[in-house]
Amino acid sequence: MAVMPKLPLVDLLPTLAQRRQRDFRRQWRVWAGLALAGVSLTLVPIVWDLHLRRGAKTQLLTLREARQRLDAKVVSFDVAQRALARMRAHRQAALALVARRQDVAGHLLDVIRACADGVRLADVKLDGHQWHVDGYATTQSRVRELQKRLRSLPWVKKVSEVESSLIPEGVAHQLVGANPPSSLPAIRRFALRVEDRPAAASALTADEMWDQEEPLDDQ
């Protein structure tokens, strides 16, 4: 009869060392989980603060860009406003110049109409609100008649005689022309200063006033 070998008993229970290793691994996992949870709890406020700062920075950049655009629009608006102001000033100056030229043209026409027979204008200048009228007349009475007619104009404030003198005969021959008459009358040179009223309108009806000339004393 054969004898079967006796097998050793198999101990399936963990040993003390194995139990200690298992407990140690369990505790390690627990501590690792707690540490991870602590780190997570610590990082959450930091991450949230970084997120808020990033959002605030983005909003600040957006507001800065919007402000820059608004400043650019304000600058362009100011430039346009200044341009409009200059255009308005130029327009007013142009209108004033046109009105002034119309008045000057009317006043010059009045001065020309005021000249009677025997009066010849040499130069008419405007200096501000003063007219300088230079010319030649056959007699002093013609000069006085011219002054009288100028004073009757509504826009004339004052008429002053600056000069009235006889000119030499040679100059008189030059004024008359190439074929002077045999008996050349004495010719006087006169200069008048006429002050106008800035707010007054030009008189355009001078023809009606001087249609019938009064007889002049040629003495």
From TrEMBL:
Protein keywords: Membrane, Transmembrane, Transmembrane helix
Transmembrane segments: 28-48
Entries under InterPro entries matching the protein: PilN
Pfam families: PilN
Name of the protein in question: Fimbrial assembly protein
Native organism: Pandoraea pneumonica
Organism lineage string: Bacteria, Pseudomonadati, Pseudomonadota, Betaproteobacteria, Burkholderiales
